[in-house]
Amino acid sequence: MAEKNFRPQHLILFSTLLNQNFVHSFNHLFSLIKLLAQFLYFERRTLPLDTLNKLCKVYEVLAPIHADAGPAIPWFNQPGKGTLFELSKSISQLHAEGKIREI
After folding, report:
1. DSSP state of 43
2. Among 60, 47, 49, 59, CA closest to 21
3. Rounded to the nearest 5°, which phi and psi values hold at 18?
4. Structural contact between residues 100 and 58, judged by C-beta atoms closer than 8 angstroms
5. Global pTM value
6. pLDDT tens, 7-38?
7. Residues 6+ away with beta carbon under 8 Å from 87
8. Which of 41, 29, 38, 13 is nearest to 99 (CA)?
9. Of 53, 57, 51, 49, whose CA–CA distance to 24 is shortest?
10. pLDDT of residue 39
11. What residue segments make up the domains of the chain, in order of their start?
12. How confident is the model over 81-100, as pLDDT tens digits?
């Protein structure tokens, strides 16, 4: 998420859904699922093309979670500019604390 002269927006996520871009439980980066096209298009998330058809996990947020939000930078020949959220804790930690559940 780091970009020159970029400061992330600090926020707290409440009742919502998170889409985990990769299936590793230590990953802290997510796309917030919204009914806005810019958050749903694969190319806006700037992931390698070989991840397009890989399994993604979706989590429901059950308790407030601290996160930083910022634009996805252009990478992997993708334009970026979607929004990524970096969570303050890992999925394993949040699940153990009862703050999220996989759906």
Report:
1. G
2. 47
3. -115, 140
4. no
5. 0.58
6. 656 666 655 555 554 433 434 445 444 333 33
7. 13, 28, 29, 30, 65, 66, 67, 94
8. 13
9. 57
10. 44
11. 9-102
12. 777 777 888 888 888 999 88
- Count of all residues that appear for the chain in the document: 103
Q: What is the DSSP secondary structure assignment for residue 67, as one 8-state letter? A: E
Residues facing residue 31 across a β-bridge: 19
CB 93 within 8 A of CB 63: no
pLDDT greater at residue 21 or residue 63:
63
DSSP alpha helix (H) spans, 1-103: 37-40, 91-96
Q: What are phi and psi of 43, to 5 degrees?
A: -65, -20
Helices (H) then strands (E): counts for the chain: 2, 7
